[in-house]
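Repro:
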Amino acid sequence: MTSDTAEPVLTVDELAARAGVTVRTIRFYSTRGLLPPPVIGPRRVGHYGPAHLSRLALIEELQHQGMTLAGIERYLEQLPEDLSAHDLAIHRALVSSWTPESTERVDVAELRKRAGRGLSATDLERLVAMNIIRRTDDPEVFDSDPGLLRLGVEMVDVPIPIETILAAQTVLIEHTRAVAQELSRLFREEVWDAGREGASEQEHTAAMKSLSAHMQPLIVQAMLTAFQRSMREEIRGWLTKD
């Protein structure tokens, strides 16, 4: 069950096991509106799908960023209601990009276990091309970014040549770096320098770090929303030209 079109077939116990949380946590998130209700199947059993799993992963990442439960609620409320599991995974990957890189060294068997599917040699090549995993001296062992692995696995079956993936990655890196530099300049000039008045250097630095940590996920969301709108407009332009 890796695609957005897959039927919701996970029970609450299975969802908890896959997400690494307790059933009680899932119930709590549901009552707070952080998690959509399950699809009720035969015998009144609730079933969950890929979007529930991706949303739980996003909540976990936002908590890792230091956001309070109220902050997470506000963040999720601003997301479109029809976001797919893939879109949610992209949100999580972008949010996690604000944290320092953390990699784990795992063998192919462990990668397949975490992916929840088989990974062929070609699949591994595509994951390497997307920089989701990195080679080591041992051909059976890779450095993996846990936060991006799920998104990378979803991209494995997309019929795009590796060369195109690499070219797209180059475009993204160049433009996102330019955006980051400009946003950093604005933050430094309009917020950082302006906040020095009446505060010690230590107090000022601590306050700015706290503000930055809380603003980063919101900036990521704004960037992703703007990008999605721009892509829809571009695709609409292709279709109307044809």
